[in-house]
Amino acid sequence: xxxxxxxxxxxxxxxxxxxxxxxxxxxxxxxxxxxxxxxxxxxxxxxxxxxxxxxxxxxxxxxxxxxxxxxxxxxxxxxxxxxxxxxxxxxxxxxxxxxxxxxxxxxxxxxxxxxxxxxxxxxxxxxxxxxxxxxxxxxxxxxxxxxxxxxxxxxxxxxxxxxxxxxxxxxxxxxxxxxxxxxxxxxxxxxxxxxxxxxxxxxxx
Amino acid sequence: xxxxxxxxxxxxxxxxxxxxxxxxxxxxxxxxxxxxxxxxxxxxxxxxxxxxxxxxxxxxxxxxxxxxxxxxxxxxxxxxxxxxxxxxxxxxxxxxxxxxxxxxxxxxxxxxxxxxxxxxxxxxxxxxxxxxxxxxxxxxxxxxxxxxxxxxxxxxxxxxxxxxxxxxxxxxxxxx
Amino acid sequence: xxxxxxxxxxxxxxxxxxxxxxxxxxxxxxxx
Lengths: 205, 176, 32
Hints:
The structure holds three protein chains of three kinds. Chain A has helices spanning 7-13, 17-48, 57-90, 102-106, 111-168, 174-204. Chain A is mainly alpha-helical. Chain A folds into two domains: 7-106, no CATH class; 126-203, no CATH class. Chain A starts with 6 loop residues before the first helix and ends with a helix. The model of chain B has no long low-confidence stretch (mean pLDDT 90). Chain B is mainly α. Chain B has helices at 6-24, 27-33, 35-40, 42-70, 73-86, 101-174. Helix content of chain C is 94%, strand content 0%. Chain C has one helix and no strands. Chain C is rod-shaped and about 45 Å long. At the A-B interface, helix 1, helix 2, helix 3, helix 4 and helix 5 of A face helix 1, helix 2, helix 3, helix 4 and helix 5 of B. Chain A: Its main location: nucleus. Chain A: Keywords: Cell cycle, Cell division, Centromere, Chromosome, Coiled coil, Kinetochore, Mitosis.
């Protein structure tokens, strides 16, 4: 006969219903025996007080045993029924979930689902790490870009300064100034040339 | 119909047990067993029997009270009544431990893992969006660097052209 | 046998909560 360990009941009560019934049974039995002992003791006490009594203590003891075995039989039979009622109606957890197991109802999770969920979490963690590394890389490049742009702007500023130098000295545009310089120097050159020719001519004359 | 509380049921069952035990151990039965003594002292027998019954019932009732006291049984049974009442709607067989703790634990832990997964998903999405912005900023920055380089190249070429012209000029100027 | 049943039942009642506390701590630590 397979024993129902009633573990779910034990989870709720903190003891097994069978153990509880055993405890009650033993206690009740002890009382029955004790009370029977007391009955026998009182009767023997009474008989002591009767002179030339024919009834011997052994007889009384036999009577007690007879009554007790009868009572014990009834007791066992009745207690069996009581135990059944206790285990079926009182010390049993019917088709419900205990509060600490509420999750089972809301989230019944099979092994596969749980593995899948854990795998999903691991993948997301990896993905998140990757994104964080990407962020570091992007930030690093942004930093680099800032430096490069600053350098390039610095170079451009130099060019602009050069430009300005020309302007500060009255020439709007460097190229034109250079062209006009070339033309002026050519004119100067020609004038020098002419002057030299004239002075030679004068010397000769 | 009306659900009887477990405590009341317990008391009723114990009372019934006692009634039947007393009915079984009737005075008739008692005197049959102690017939010599009964013939000798019928009143005393009656008194002893009454005392026997009273004492037995008292002892058993006290024991039940003690057990109720010890295991705080009334409160526990009332709590169970309440849980059963709340779970009455349960139609399909209620979950029970499978005997494989890891499996049983999954349902308890799952809500927290689901929460963790959702949080991670949000973090990943947020970080992806942030990285997209950073990537856009980088592309714009690269474009700007390119433009700056082009500008510098243009300036450099202009200066180089100028330099060439300068050299030509000098060459011209230097002509004998 | 009875003690084993009570022991298992007690663990079934208490351990999920304890394990849950550890799991929650672990998840929080990971997030941090």
